[in-house]
Design goal:
This protein is mainly alpha-helical. The chain has one domain. The chain is built from four helices and two strands. The protein starts with 6 loop residues before the first helix and ends in a 7-residue tail after the last helix.
């Protein structure tokens, strides 16, 4: 997770403190100039980076709303929004089919 926290810490957090999770992936180190820039412009499709996507989702409380980050840069920047959305959802489904911790 880019926050610097761990999946174990997320799972141990009081459920009422976790209201929302966004699924995205990224490299081990932020390659953008700022975390804000990375979050808005340098996302990777799930499975293309080093984040434990399956572990992250498993650690979220049952009531938690979840969204899928849709990259608008990199290898899929030329695709229209529908294609990017489809690829993002497919990548998350594939990442969730992997065992947690298998990054």
């Amino acid at each position: 997770m880019r926050s610097g926290g761990t999946v174990t810490e997320l799972a141990a957090a009081p459920p009422e403190f976790i209201l929302y999770g966004q699924v995205a992936d990224g490299p081990a180190e932020c390659t953008a100039d700022t975390l804000d820039e990375e979050a808005s412009q340098a996302r990777l499709l799930a499975g293309e980076g080093v984040f434990d996507v399956a572990g992250f989702v498993a650690a979220l409380p049952e009531h938690c709303h979840i969204s899928v980050g849709i990259p608008r840069n990199g290898a899929i920047a030329h695709e229209d929004r529908n294609a990017r959305a489809n690829r993002a959802v497919h990548s998350v489904r594939h990442a969730l089919a992997q065992p947690a911790g298998s990054v």
